[in-house]
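target protein:
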Amino acid sequence: MQSIDRVKLREMFPPPGNLVVQKVLDRLDQHCLHFLSLSPFLLIATQGHNGADVSPRGDPAGFVKAIDRQTILIPDRPGNNRLDTMENILDNPRVGCLFLVPGLGEILRINGEADLVVGPELEQLAFQGKTPPVAIRIRIGEALFHCAKAVIRSKVWNPATFARREDFPPLGAVLADQIAGLDKDEMIEWIRVGDQRTLY
């Protein structure tokens, strides 16, 4: 295999059509807002001094709040406390997000600049009586919809293609293989209990 540069890359593909260029918005329209209200899951990409990172965020549909047509808030829920996403934002505010809606092929992509916010305004992000201690605020630079080709090719929402639980070991078993001294059964149970008790 050989690497290629930007010039060679562009020689290999036709230029994007006018529609591809024109569909990029600098703010949320009614369709973006509607899609956000249906989305329970997103991936957020960041980059900091330690490199790039992509992390998932999920909650009941509509958990990401549009403050206005150029600003969204993503609540931080309990996790592993690595804080990769948030520390990267402190290094470099540029972020990219992909929003998915189960059953739909379209994907909403939002790029912009983020910061971390605290304060009583985060009460609007509370769930099950718990307000997140911090939220990611994104000021939107680009918003656009991707067509369904990736979803169609992957059959990601097709139950007939879903992996069975026995096709891949649970995380506790994986960690016991990766880290010496861990008991597989204890880890499986610890993660199972934690997944239920520390969601919020």
In short: The chain has a mean pLDDT of 96. The first strand starts at residue 41 and ends at 48.
